[in-house]
Amino acid sequence: MASAPELTSRPRRLWTRFDGPGRLAGVDLARGLAVVGMLAAHLLDTEDFVAGDPSSWLDIVNGRSSILFAVLAGVSISLVTGGTRPVEGYRRTRASARLAMRGALLWVIGILLVMTGVPVYVILPAYALLFVLSLPFLGMRPRALFLTAGALALVMPWIQPVLDAAPIWSGRGGDELAAALGWHYPFPVWIAFLLAGMGLGRLDLRLLPEQALIVLSGSALTLAGYGLALATAPLVAGNAYLSTVLTAEDHSAGLGEVIGSGGFAIAVIGLCLLLCRTPLRWVAVPLRAVGSMPLTAYVVQLLVWAVVALAVLGDTSDLWGIRALELFGPLTLGLIVGCTAWVLTVGRGPLEALVDAIVRLVVGRDAAAPSER
């Protein structure tokens, strides 16, 4: 039997890992919002956003939640590869191998989720490819990362419609290939979100001026992107190509969406970092718990969806049927309560721990210290 000091030290260690100085509470909060936002986008039938109609504001979760998830992936990659001081030499080689292995495991998990038949565009295959695509950029400093992200954000939306029109997608096996590549989140465009997040992760995110600058910069990009789409809408009407490129519609990969929703994601991250400097840090503990195990939370929500749909509807692909069951509330509450209890009693998310254990077994330990994760 463990002694009394050992019994009291375990909860303390778990809390320190979750809320200690080595962890960015604001990043966990942003991840939690991204996970819950994607769940809402999947399970709720939202109206198109109208600024003057508060009942339509929930539409903000569509598209933006997944982009927030991608930007946060970039933040995480930078944090585990040195933070403000990118790893070099052998440590960079080891970090690259670990990221590639992690990407491979995420791809496998993503394909297994696709095979459940749940009618959502599973983000994990795209997420996995982005992990691998990050490798050439690990040594870059914030300025270079932001400039590269900006260049890709301005150029790739003009090329993406051509890639989308390629015959390969409409040919035999096209749907399967699209699912395997996560093409609903096309990596030629989405790499811009990842690199922007990596740029954020190379900043000292604990500093107040940096946090404020992130909010201001993200807000400016949000206004620029959505403003561009509004201003050009009358000019491009009737032109299919320009309408596709200059739109801010969610999941369009249009220029307005890439700049506007990318900026929105950046602003949300900065705002979460600022909020976690206040007592709201404690109010947000349940959402932060979800954000501390985003892979587990994302996978669990889709598995529960598949099981409930199969048991009640007899068909995992019935989107409107599952929405009619009003699963969002119970599933969200269950995730929040379950993740909070797990963090306080067990620690790291089960899938996060499993992936890390496999990567550690195959490649070795992280190049960065555990406190940087």
What report would you give on this structure?
There is one protein chain. By secondary structure, this protein is mainly alpha-helical. It is 69% helix and 0% strand. It is built from 17 helices and no strands. It has helices at 4-19, 25-43, 64-79, 89-114, 124-133, 142-164, 174-181, 187-201, 208-236, 240-245, 255-275, 280-283, 285-292, 294-312, 319-324, 328-345, 350-362. Helix 2 (25-43) packs antiparallel against helix 3 (64-79) and helix 2 packs across helix 13. The longest helix is centred in the middle third of the chain and has 29 residues, at 208-236. The two termini are 32 Å apart. The model is unreliable at 1-7 and 367-373 (pLDDT under 50).
Keywords:
373 residues, mainly alpha, 17 helices, disordered N terminus
